[in-house]
Design brief:
single chain; 142 residues; two-stranded antiparallel ribbon; alpha+beta; two-stranded parallel sheet; 4 strands
Length: 142
């Protein structure tokens, strides 16, 4: 099953931008409802791009702190610090190179960097897709 919630700025969505906190609360409620309504042990993969990666990082942190982590997490181009729109993001763990690698070492996690990619993965989307699919399908149920 795939759930792809949309930003409040798209389509018929209502509400306001909550800088990730409100969006994470909404998606965390969705994750909890899905976990309660489906069989135990089904793998949960969280994938987010840009602002969605910021939201997914908050959800992943909350699930991990609650002792019910996702099977896999993919954060593609997460924002960190002040962005051109004037918003400031403080994603759990931050995403500076040394901090990410230190976190990955402590938690036995892999980090993949596409050195030729820009924020939108221009020209790199087929590779990004293969990497995400491989990572998510390789996750084991917990």
């Amino acid at each position: 099953m795939t759930c792809a919630p949309t930003s409040v700025a798209w389509g018929a969505a209502r509400g306001g931008h909550a800088c990730g906190a409100g969006e994470a609360d909404d998606l965390l409620a969705l994750v909890q409802a899905l976990r309660a309504g489906i069989r135990q042990g089904l793998a949960l993969a969280l994938v987010g791009f840009s602002f969605g990666a910021h939201v997914v990082s908050r959800i992943a942190a909350a699930l991990s702190e609650a002792g019910a982590p996702a099977s896999s997490v993919v954060l593609a181009s997460p924002p960190d610090g002040r962005v051109p729109a004037g918003r400031s993001y403080d994603s759990p763990g931050h995403f500076g190179g040394d901090l990410v690698l230190g976190w990955a070492r402590r938690h036995d996690k892999a980090v993949t960097v596409l050195p030729e990619a820009d924020h939108f993965f221009t020209g790199q989307l087929p590779l990004l897709r293969r990497l995400v699919v491989t990572h998510v399908t390789g996750a084991t149920a917990v």
